[in-house]
Give the backbone structure.
Amino acid sequence: MIDDLKSRLEEAFADAQVAVAGEGNRFEIHIVSVAFDGLNRVKRQQAVYAVIGELIASGAIHAVTIQATTPDETRD
């Protein structure tokens, strides 16, 4: 499941650096992408949820924590 999540996110956010950790159906996603530039935290999370929503709806993912930042924010 970790590899599936990572590949889905890398495909959706082509420039992204993606790290996924977790077990069972609970995951932590750390994603850095220029796509988040100018978006507030909620919009960033919505963008990630749009990619993984199918997995949440199916029950494959029960809980997820998302940290979505831009490359500039990561350097700070």
The domain at 2-75 is CATH 3.30.300.90 (GMP Synthetase; Chain A, domain 3).
